[in-house]
User: Fold this.
Amino acid sequence: MSLIPFSPPRIDDEIINEVVAALKSGWITTGPRTKQFEKDLSVYNGNPNTLCLNSATAGLEIMLRWFGVKEGDEVILPAYTYSATANVVMHCGATPVLVDVNSDDFNINSAAVEKAITARTKVIMPVDFGGLPCDYTALMALVNKPAVKSHFKASTKEQEQLGRIMILSDAAHSLGAYYKGRHTGVCADVSVFSFHAVKNLTTAEGGAIALHLPAPFDNEEVYKYLCILTLHGQNKDALAKMQKGNWKYDILEAGFKCNMTDLMAAIGLVELKGTITIP
Ligand SMILES: Cc1ncc(COP(=O)(O)O)c(C=O)c1O
Assistant:
């Protein structure tokens, strides 16, 4: 009996050489390769800014926390997904509200989402299961419905700015997928990809937040803030601190620690160039 391997990672000479080059450069943590990978992902997906992290799980939780999701809030997600989608909601102290999926594509059912919305709903987290995008047209139309918007109770600056329920796509499976001619990174307010070992593009572990927030948000500003939030609240990363006379830094808040390393980005850079054409 021959076994069919489950999504084996690409480990060829090109990948190995780039990882070795990163090692030999002496720069192994977040640095030039991570920054380049973020830029390439933004070009590939067509969204303004992308932040790479050590997992999609971290990316999803960071975005919930950025939006101010907390105890008493509800987040709607599909009943059919990996545990990470619900766990991050619970880590924030909020309640995951599980709704049914479609019988054909196994993605979240928009009519079921509408029925589940309450005055406590802050976020909808659709999942592009198996890489098949959700019905983003229906979900976006739903959160923009005047009757739904008028029930939204903003309790943070970010919630006030958006003025409605946020669509945070769990796009862990769907880097490279198209929805109505556009990549999945530009279908929701924010999409989070996974680069775990079995994903369609891998960096061993890893993930990325694709920012696609509407006006009045400045995605570049949000990106800069998230860089700080994901590095213990440090206002300079290791690369910035290495510049001459720039070693002093401040801790602005009790942030998290989930940055991507350049060794991971080395794999991602080759994968993105090699397996997918950057337009
Ligand atoms: C639907 C879904 N969401 C989130 C994740 C979490 O991704 P990561 O392992 O990069 O944290 C996974 C991982 O398999 C997943 O399948």
Notes: The pocket of pyridoxal-5'-phosphate is lined by residues 55-57, 81-82, 84-85, 127, 170, 172-173, 194, 196, 207 (CB under 6 Å).
